[in-house]
Amino acid sequence: MTVSQPEVLHQAFELGFTYTRSTGPVVGRFLTELKKRNIVGIRASDGRVIVPPMEYDPDTAEALSEFVDVAEQGEVVSFAWVKEPREAHPMQEPFAWAMIKLDGADVPMIHCVAARSESDICTGARVRAVWADETRGFITDIRCFELV
Fold first, then answer.
1. What gap in Å lies between CA 107 and CA 36, rounded to an integer?
2. Do the domain assignments include residue 3?
3. What is the SS3 string spanning 123-140?
4. I need a surface site. Which of 6, 34, 56, 129 has the fewest CB within 10 A?
């Protein structure tokens, strides 16, 4: 006796995200300024300048709107050396992920720093932004930071 199997229904399906999302007025302004090779932060209720800017005050949760230009140069607050970069990393040669407090900012931002070796970078080192050849309004418009 043969047992018949019921026919299994199947349908091809491709998962996709067919919508777009606005970056909003604060992050959108930050990215627009990057495209123009300018870095901005936002002033919090206690007077601190936060880079990258955030929409809401971390202490009061009130909306923030006072943009502040900051410098392209700053100081390394802390760092982690990447000896063997992976394909997904922003640089293919060894580099440092660093917390960088830009001049005019009170809160550090994270970005990559190009350095020849781990011994070349230290806490307190001065760095400056290296801009991408073509800017598009992405954080990668700052290709990396370099030691000054």
1. 22
2. no
3. CCCEEEEEECCCCCCCHH
4. 6
Hey, what are 93's tokens? 């040669």
- The answer to whether residue 17 is domain-embedded is no
What global pTM score does this model have?
Answer: 0.85
Torsion on CA atoms 88, 92, 97, 102, rounded to nearest 10: -110
For residues 137 and 32, the answer to whether their CB atoms sit within 8 Å is yes
Q: Across the strands, what pairs with 80?
A: 97
Question: Which residue range is the domain that position 66 belongs to?
Answer: 24-147
Percentage helix, strand, coil, to 5, in the chain? Answer: 10, 35, 55
User: For the segment 57-101, what is each residue's pLDDT rounded down to a tens digit?
Assistant: 999 999 999 999 999 999 999 999 999 999 999 999 999 999 999
Which letter does DSSP use for residue 116 in this model?
S
The count of structural domains within the chain is 1
The token duo for 118 is 């781990």
Q: Tens digits of per-residue pLDDT, 8-20?
A: 888 888 888 788 8
Q: What are phi and psi of 120, to 5 degrees?
A: -80, -20
In a domain, 112, yes or no: yes
